[in-house]
Specification:
It is a single chain. The protein is of the alpha+beta class and about 130 residues long. It has one domain: TATA-Binding Protein, CATH 3.30.310. The chain has helices at about 5-10, 20-35, 55-60, 85-90, 95-120; strands spanning about 15-20, 40-45, 50-55, 65-70, 75-80, 125-130. The chain has a six-stranded antiparallel sheet with strand order 2-3-4-5-1-6. Strand 4 (about 65-70) and strand 5 (about 75-80) form a beta hairpin. It starts with a helix and ends with a strand.
Length: about 130
């Protein structure tokens, strides 16, 4: 079992940023959402984009989850509330903290893969993901 403080630190390190034509981003949004859904995260619309959580209740009680923000020619993916990962809250929604960590990391990796298929990591795409 990983130390929860280390898992929180790793979640906080997840950042993906893309600067591209707004129409190109719009075309990729379906694939980005599917990348999250493919590992069991539910997409919910937010003012700035989407939240991807294992359940509505998980978001309501403040568990970490992926966020996608899309503003014109800028797309950002990050983890909302990374330091709120704890066993007690996870138990409230029937998931282990390590499993939630794994789902979020895998979702972020799959989203990064979607973007890497269309863009090179340079000035337009920046991806920061923990190793494990």
């Amino acid at each position: 079992m990983n130390d929860l403080s280390e898992l929180r630190r790793r979640l906080a390190a997840i950042h993906i940023t893309l600067k591209a034509d707004a129409e190109e981003i719009r075309k990729l949004m379906k694939d980005l959402l599917e990348a999250g859904r493919s590992i069991g995260l539910e997409a919910e619309k937010r003012a700035e984009g989407y939240a991807l959580t294992p359940s509505r209740k998980a978001a309501e009680i403040g568990l970490p989850h992926l966020r996608i923000a899309w503003m014109g020619d800028l797309l950002t993916v990050w983890v909302r509330a990374p330091y709120s990962l704890d066993e007690m809250r996870c138990e409230m929604v029937g998931i282990e903290a390590e499993k939630l960590y794994g789902m979020i990391l895998l979702g972020a990796r799959r989203m990064a893969d979607v973007l890497r298929r269309s863009f090179k990591e340079d000035d337009f795409l920046q991806v920061t993901l923990p190793q494990t």
